[in-house]
Amino acid sequence: MMTGYPGFISGRLYRGLKEKDPSARFTFLVHPSQMKKARQMLDMEEKVKLVEGDITQEDLGMESGVMASLQETVTHFFHLAAIYDLAVPKEAAEKVNVTGTDRVNQFVRSIPGLKRYLYFSTAYVSGERTGRVTEEELDQGQRFKNHYESTKFEAEKRVRALDGVPLTIIRPGVVVGDSRTGETAKFDGPYFVMRFLDGMGPLPIPYIGHGRNPFNIVPVDYIVNATVYLAHAGKDGTFHLTDPSPYTAREVYRMISEELLGRKPMFTLPARLADGLMSIKPVRRYYDVEKEAIAYMTNQSDYDSSHAQAVLAEGGIRCPDFASYLPNLVSYYKKHREDPEKKIKIQ
């Protein structure tokens, strides 16, 4: 059973799980607003059942008969549903990310035949921490850059508090498109760099801040391959699905600039000044960049993924180098940069 469908990662995860085990049957808990899209994407696939529901409601918004049936048949539960927007208001983030996860946890505990609960957290539960962050660390008294981070932190605390549940916690870095095709659902995260650079026109290109911090980027196909392997291997614990050898934010910025525009940045714009400029609504709307994105160019933790790397190596799964697939990301962005479905609405 899976939440978050028909989201970008959940859709790809479904295909990966189906490829791994063609005999598997799937149930997707789909929000009413997404039911039409989910039906169109699945196109009457026989081994898939769509259940209308809402993770923020009691019993996940399911009818009692449907819930009872699922309690008897579900063996694996994948919880991906969340609000990922960096600019999400506090109330909305808490309702979906915290209350929603509480509701899912209650349902998961009611499944007698549960073999594995896979919860999608984020590496950014580390908040404003700097330096090395290990996979088992969580509450270190850190502060957070936005409500997305703080609510995912609270949600992971609640998941970790479950007793007697076979649990795998997935902590991705910044997820971008497919490393082979560049395909992505939304131009957020590092794509804000591309948006910003697009807006520079013929002007000299600045770096944003010192950029000495690691900027941890991973392609969606790595996340999917790793999750499929961890689900079937039945591995307990928390896994940083992050790049074990990340480039610095400055290096990422330069590589994107060269690939997208064929030009290198010429000078450094102080991060505080950039943050101040993006606090002005007309400026951030002109550049199509969320103000909250600036912090990720100047302040990130260094994620220790040694446990994940050791386990995934058994399945021959490794994170590709960012430089090797950046041309595919940029090529896809150029082809779809004006697609309204992929743009993020800037407040």
UniProtKB/TrEMBL annotation:
<dbReference type="InterPro" id="IPR013120">
    <property type="entry name" value="FAR_NAD-bd"/>
</dbReference>
<dbReference type="GO" id="GO:0080019">
    <property type="term" value="F:alcohol-forming very long-chain fatty acyl-CoA reductase activity"/>
</dbReference>
<dbReference type="Pfam" id="PF07993">
    <property type="entry name" value="NAD_binding_4"/>
</dbReference>
<dbReference type="InterPro" id="IPR026055">
    <property type="entry name" value="FAR"/>
</dbReference>
<protein>
    <submittedName>
        <fullName>Thioester reductase-like protein</fullName>
    </submittedName>
</protein>
<dbReference type="GO" id="GO:0035336">
    <property type="term" value="P:long-chain fatty-acyl-CoA metabolic process"/>
</dbReference>
<dbReference type="InterPro" id="IPR036291">
    <property type="entry name" value="NAD(P)-bd_dom_sf"/>
</dbReference>
<feature type="domain" description="Thioester reductase (TE)">
    <location>
        <begin position="13"/>
        <end position="227"/>
    </location>
</feature>
